[in-house]
Records
---
Amino acid sequence: MNRAIIDQVRQRASERCEYCGIPETDSGLRFHVEHIIACQHGGSDELGNLALACPDCNWNKGTNLTGIDPDTGDVTVLFHPQRDAWREHFQNDPPRIKGDTGTGRTTVWLLNMNHPLRLRHRLWLWQLGEWP
Ligand SMILES: [Zn+2]
């Protein structure tokens, strides 16, 4: 992946994680340009398959494309930041992120978005007016 593509992804995302929405500037960590559909599954380096993700979201997502909806037990496709509209699947209930659809619930659960340490971080960001 070349530098120009990485810069385009970072700029398109306004330097925020495209899953949980935290800003890169306050994370203290460099965010990852991740393959939404992993290379292992034939995903490309095209812009439409790339997303900016914080390390927590990226590490928890890994190469997964689906997960188990915690409410229904159904195998469910994960949120795709370039095809899906965030607000159709999630809502912020600071500092929590709630899934409104199967895709939203499954993504929140698989990416462990409401881990206590992540809630503490988002609460701090929320109090600073930097999230959501
Ligand atoms: Zn994230």
---
Amino acid sequence: MTPNERAAPEHLTVEQACAVMRQAYQLGWISTRDGNVSVAMTDRRGFLVSGSGLIKHALVPTQFALVPAGGAPRVEQTPRPSGELELHRRLQALFNSQHLTVLHLHPTHIVAALYAGHRLAELSAGFPEVTRYTRVGPDVPALPATSEELAEACEAAFRPALGAPPHIVGLDRHGVVAVGKTPWEAFEHVERLEHICRIALAAGQPLAHAQGARHAHAR
Ligand SMILES: [Zn+2]
């Protein structure tokens, strides 16, 4: 790809995506090479996705791979697209927007809440900080990273039977996928959910569905 092929206005968005990955690393939401991000191209030619195995806190716009709409990336291109390419491909196609960021991170407290057995949609329902701005979707079960099954399950979680799609879904034993019009918007959905998971875990919040099950049993 020549520099002209990814000329503005994408360039600014891709720079923001790099800044988001730097910030996520600084917050401890990813280790050095974890996480990935894609941004749609405004002319609908496809999307740009972060390269595979790169140092995410030092990511730069030239380290994104172009994935043409409805097609496969060029095999010989450098960098190679993220190992979670299929997840990005499915979500970029599902939302089909000129202004879409798909962000995948491993935020500590969200993963810990899932690991403790919380359901993120139930947990967040009691916190207006999240419910006012961020729709939390159904949790995706533990599936192998970079697998087709994980990509399929994420797509299903972002495709509601009724109503608006979620902004963020949790992946058990793994992380989150968030979407936004910009990289920072996607980041904010992660930040809100991470914050309330941290609060709930610090308070030793009991599991809502486990409580429900106990009450049902008592009756
Ligand atoms: Zn991951």
---
Amino acid sequence: MTVFIIGHRFHFETENLCRMFYPNSEVVLEYELREVSGDYIITSMSTSSELSVLNVEAHIGGIIEKSERKAIACSDDEAEYTLALCLYDCLTRITGYTPAWGLLTGVRPSKLMNRLIDEKGDEGAKEYFREKLLVSQDKTQLAFDVAQAQKQIFKENRPESFSLYVSIPFCPSRCSYCSFVSHSITSNNAKKLLVPYIENLAKEIMITAEYARNNNLRLESVYFGGGTPGVLSAEQSEFLIDTIKNNFDMTFCREFTFESGRADTVTEEKLLSLKKSGVDRISINPQTFDNTVLELIGRKHTAEQTVEAYRLAEKIGFDSINMDLIAGLPGDTVEGFINSVDTAVSLRAENITVHSLALKRSSTLVAKENTELARDMTAAKMIDYANKTLSEHGYIPYYMYRQSRCVGNLENVGWCLPGKECLYNVYMMEEIHTVLAVGAGAVTKLKAPYDNHIERIFNYKYPYEYNTGFDTLLERKNRISEFYSTYN
Ligand code: SF4
């Protein structure tokens, strides 16, 4: 699909809205009108001294829809909003689809809700979501509930607070929907990379701790994510955790999460070692409790193994366990997903995170699957069931985000039993403090202590680059001190 951007600069919002309606189409932006074959949309703005005229003309699948609005002496923000509204009008008419999140294309609805509550109060913020952004009543309430659940965590955050993220980009095998740069640990290549990777990771942890000390930062939470950190042996994870504990000041650390991830990596020895090392929160992620779907997506474990791993972790004394579920997996049905939600609820997992499947171009699945609309409707029913059931069983939504190319433009929501919120998820998603990140694919996010300025430092994406370019990578870390001396 070609989208013409004529006389305005709102290409970002325009492209995002088109993707919302056509998540798997290629969107090509053009800045001068010309003849094209196939589907196209013209978005244009013409401005005289007092008046802007915003125009959208969509030619899709043989249907033509036009929408025009005038705005008098409008600001950039108003013009962008008005153009988005014109485009939204046309695309809802052509597709017959009304997105539950309305015009909201951003990835952090709760961050916006938090800001609006500060500016307009509770009712004003909800009204803005509903009336201006055309977000449905249910999704508005969801974003509002998330904002409420985060209030106390925001209050306890301090200007010097930060979290540590440790990236383990290795997995037992690769899932078909995955776009993450994770290496399957079964390949010889990955096996060779792992040992030097862990050595370098330990060095990076030590150097990062030095930056934290020199800048008087206060560690609030540690998160081992991936990939599947559970692929590490008990000795390997113990070594990395000890390196953290020996180098960072752990006095104020309130949470230590380790994503065990998949049931096929969980053993009693590993769980005992994590417990002994002071890990107080783990993830055991079923994604689904349907064995046929698990096989289809390339997971090498069964639903029964997930339940066993969960019971084992409970027996060992973990009282904060997260389970990830995904709505919209290939081969899954509404009934199958209902069973997955019911199973996670019956286990009384303290955290249940419900994701909507996002099909990135780099996943192997995207090439095979092209039944987007049917799957969208199914995923929406699944998410509705999850939201209703989890609320009924005493879970509260406490963090959320959206991804592009998500089935049905739906959301990912972390639910928990009250008091069992994962602090790291809130810190990171709402960007309320710095996250120092180590390992391949990790992104350090520096947040200015007294305003919302954010800067990122990117580590090398792949483990082999990380191992070979390690010295260059360490140089980039100097930015941490420069940043704090500028913004403190
Ligand atoms: S376990 Fe997670 S990170 Fe690893 S391949 Fe599967 S989806 Fe990707």
